[in-house]
Amino acid sequence: MTMQEARVDHTIIKDFVPEGARVLDVGCGDGSLLALLEQTRSVDGRGLELSQQGVNTAVARGLSVIQGDADTDLVTYPDKAFDVVILSETLQATQAPKTVMEQLLRISDKVIVTIPNFGNWRARLHLLLRGEMPVTKSLPYSWYDTPNVHFCTLRDFLSLARELGASIEASAALDAHGDQLTWNVPWSVWNLVAAQGIFVLTSQSPKDTA
Fold first, then answer.
1. Whole-model pTM?
2. How far apart, in Å, are the Cα atoms of 40 and each of 19, 28, 61, 76, 197?
3. For the residues 174-195, what does the mean pLDDT come to?
């Protein structure tokens, strides 16, 4: 994969990962992000993926990826086993998001999480005008076949981070087209207009970012 082919969110995540870091990508899918990090950051990368098809594709790329479930298998990793742990577009599909986040913050001092924002104005408007669960580019599933178990907004995630005693070291927001939003506005505004949030958390004292 070249930098020109990489997704915007993957490129942003790449910039948050130190050179040569030990990285665990939880819910790594086909391994495209992990491959990008190995190519551009020379990371010592590992992947955990629920889908056997995803594991097969990632392994075919030459990546070290195993099949596993974030809800049950993170407990097997030692404390601070990695420099960076990544959970990209996966938290909302877990059965116990708070427990998963606690495990991630135990495994590494730096955790990068990306989530779709169910508080986006498009989703709000769709629900208000049509009275139906929204189906959008960033939320492409119907209510009856969605893999998403827990629907949260960016503000919900920030509240969870505070509850866990984690600090937001850095963050970014993307619009519905996958482009990065660069306005200097509070998270209350991003919560309305952003389709996706990217957060870098550290297991230090919390700070108010909402």
1. 0.85
2. 8, 17, 15, 29, 23
3. 87
